[in-house]
Amino acid sequence: LPIQNGGDGAQRTTVDICQLGGPSQKPTDLWVSQLPAVYEQLCTADGSQKYKCPGISPFHQHVSLRTAKRGPGPGQRPSDPYRGARFHPLLAGLLALGINQSLRGRS
After folding, report:
1. Cβ proximity of 17 and 24 under 8 Å
2. CA nearest 9: which of 1, 19, 18, 21?
């Protein structure tokens, strides 16, 4: 809800993990409130999704999450450290940067 209606002013944004180098699209919704720099890290100036998948093409492919969750067979090592539905470290970095910038802007 908007702040004027008693809410905390949260805004939803989505990050497609493939745009951070992940093997699958894995759209990840985040609700951001009262940390403006976090929203700025994830959205363009007009509020559009900054990390949006451009779609499948010869230059952009995805691994199926269903396949990725199964993982490697017995005795095999995973070929990609970010397989399946794990939280992508670059998303964690964007969130940390935005939180830091938001808090520094308030001091």
Report:
1. yes
2. 1
